[in-house]
Amino acid sequence: MILEENDDWESESDEIENGSNLIQCPNCRQQIYSESEKCPRCSYWITDDELDADYSNQKNTAKGIKRVGLIILWLIGLAGVFATILVLLGV
After folding, report:
1. Using one digit for the tens of pLDDT, what is the confidence trace for 57-90?
2. Any domain includes 3
3. Against a cut of 0.70, is the pTM above it?
4. CA 64 – CA 57 distance, rounded (Å)
């Protein structure tokens, strides 16, 4: 079978390569395709509820990382202001 350049198979392959189509098995934590009904490593059956929970956990983790980044930037800015005040005071 010869695949066309714009074949759907290639676009799915790209999604899999960049990890957007992978989840972790709730049982063994192996990376598996999100379309999988069963983990190939441990044979655990994946339910829709677990897929939703995994997506929610990934979303919450991303929010947490963003929050930590903002706190770090805020602290760096505060340190810069404090250093500027010390230089102006001649300390």
Report:
1. 666 677 778 888 889 999 999 999 999 999 999 8
2. no
3. no
4. 10
Residue type, 89: L
Residue 30, domain extent: 14-46
Distance CA 5, CA 14 (A): 13
Question: 53 and 91: one domain?
Answer: yes
> Could you tell me the CA-to-CA distances from 37 to 11, 23, 44, 77 in Å, in that order?
21, 12, 8, 48
State the burial class of residue 46 (Cβ atoms within 10 Å of its Cβ: 0-12, 13-18, 19+). buried
CB neighbour class for 36 (10 Å; exposed up to 12, middle 13-18, buried from 19): middle
Say how many Å lie between the first and final Cα of the chain, rounded.
76
1 pLDDT band (50/70/90 cuts)? very low
